[in-house]
């Protein structure tokens, strides 16, 4: 059924039997027979044929999603057999959260280049990457809870501490809040964790307190940069990375009253987890964590 699946996915990608047949170098009737055979095996219509091309049925869309994962897993299996025993080399597609500090991303790239120069990194970013939906990604990092399902090999990278942080110039002008209620009279710059829609801080006792924020975003780097300009109190993950060369370290506010852990996870599709270029992430992630997030797990 691999040939039939390939034919079906090509028709979906090309949008018509004629274009797919031309690309594959077979007749249109041959391609139709292959898709018809797949529909018989599936027991449901997969494609609706129309004057403007083809459209997927609900069953077809489900098969297309699963079929692409199967194709990728099969290709990964062949690659793992071919590359076994070789030096890690090739492209690694990495998906990262925008909340990850650019300095950490740069350090991670530097560590990979130093240790495995044959590995080429293709990085994409989003506010809240969902590894269960990233079928074209080799390695994903995300904040939040582990994703369900057994398709991904998952590792807990570290727990960053989310804190209230302010520039000394802001505190000199506006004063430091002494209790949680004082935040109402301050400019709060809030990072929204994945799944959060409204800004809220977490007390040491675990209580969640809504706050009025002058900016709320899933990009933690933006929150930090605004705080460094002295424009408010940041509520954001703190990896304890050193400030930039022209920056003064931010000061923690309400240290004993406010704070929570935010977990950074790393996942790799199980089918490709044994590729040499992928194993460098899995087998060495403890080393990379210590190098990239030095001090990041400290309280």
What does this entry look like structurally?
The protein is α/β, with parallel strands linked by helices and 299 residues long. The protein has 2 domains: 2-83, Orthogonal Bundle (Arc Repressor Mutant, subunit A); 90-299, D-Maltodextrin-Binding Protein, domain 2 (3-Layer(aba) Sandwich), CATH 3.40.190.290. The protein has 9 helices and 13 strands. The protein has helices at 2-14, 17-24, 28-42, 58-83, 102-115, 168-174, 220-228, 276-283, 285-292; strands at residues 47-50, 53-56, 90-97, 119-126, 139-143, 152-166, 188-191, 200-202, 208-210, 213-217, 233-238, 251-253, 260-269. Strands 3, 4, 5, 6, 7, 10, 11, 12 and 13 form a 9-stranded mixed β-sheet that branches. It has a two-stranded antiparallel ribbon with strand order 1-2. It starts with a helix and ends in a 7-residue tail after the last helix. 31% of the residues are buried.
